[in-house]
Design a protein that fits this description.
By secondary structure, the chain is an alpha/beta fold. The chain has helices at 36-46, 68-85, 103-114, 117-120, 131-145, 163-170, 199-205, 217-226, 240-251, 255-271, 279-299, 303-318, 328-342, 349-361, 388-397, and strands at 58-62, 90-96, 148-154, 181-188, 208-212, 326-327, 365-371, 378-384. Helix 6 links the parallel strand 3 and strand 4 (181-188).
Amino acid sequence: MSDSTSFFGDPDPIFANKDLLRVQHLPDKDRIIGRDEELTQLANAIKDAAHGRTPNNVLVYGKTGTGKSLCTKYITNDLVSSAEENDVSVGVAYVDCFQDSTETQTVRSIADSLNDPDETDIKIPMSGLSTSDYYRRLWNILEDRYDVGLVILDEIDKLDSDDVLMQLSRAAESGKIEDSTLGIIGISNKIRYKETLNERVRSSLSERNLVFAPYDAKQLGEILNSRIDAFREGVVEEAVIPKIAALAAREHGDARKAIDILRYAGESAYERGHESVREIHVDEAHEREERNRLSELISKLPSHSKHLLNALALQAQQHDDDDPEIPTEDIYSLYEIMCKQEGTDPLKNRRVRDLLSELEFLSVIHQQHKGRGRGRGAHTVNQLVDEPKLVIKACKSA
DNA sequence: CCTCCACAGGAATTTGCGGGGT
DNA sequence: ACCCCGCAAATTCCTGTGGAGG
């Protein structure tokens, strides 16, 4: 601690408005840096909606932290207000397909965010309806409230079926909705995503394609500078922002991570009781950012997946071997023991294999098929992608 | 190069949940 | 109040298979 005697009373010596460094924070237009080209293209693609006509469907590509979601949210907000001036009502539904990955969940989520139960007298329950019921309600809501519906599907590549896309893209032509119309904006970080779609959906979904390039050091610097107001005047030393920008540009060009690092740097300066943010804080912040990414991912996992990961990490630690391959059956037996100690009953073997392959899909672990020779069967071995220590820590805290 | 079998993973089935309809 | 439905998660059932040892 510093020599300050008060824990809450004194004003924060480092931060003036920390909210500016939250990822969710949606900046004004003049704070969106280096995406003018992309914003114009996006606006052009969907501008028809402002006049009540059907907008183009768009696919937006780009690595994480390149401003895809941010720009899409900004431009759709803008569209809603300029449509209002023309007496056109536009409804925007934002869906994170990582969370709502099944067809039913996606439709439900779209319907829910476009709905206003007081106005439409339509209720959208969390579950209990058939998928087609959700669709029916969605169409009714659209006709009731909006001239144009815009559906933003973030992380669209995480969808486990094309059916939603199919339904949405032909809603208008098949006469499900008559007075309203619908546009889709798909956001993906896999450039090859389009190739995995069937022909019918592909052509209608990708009427326009946009690619967001990673930010370079100069742009990252500007982005960070635009949020400098989060700090008290003069506490961030000059070298700090260029250093973070260079670091982030070299590694990934991810603005979200760059902002996280800046925030962590501020926090670590605060914790040490320093009155300015210096270069040494950046190095700490960088490490902290990497650790946090993993624990955030793990904390969103279902509890049984966490236990499995924990079991795998513990066994990996037993081996002196670096990056040991652990057979599934070993993970399972340790997992069983852990569950019994904790008083929850363990899942069966088959389910566990499914959960493990989900973890592989999330690239938290790596799996490999191996045979064991005559009369000894074949099995799968599992490896952690990250350090066992980090994983165990993340499992505990979650 | 063939063989042999424990585990992999697809398919069918059950369970639990949160709703409608009557 | 009751029964019935669809979905997701979990379980049961069962065929397919990788690859070291013969």
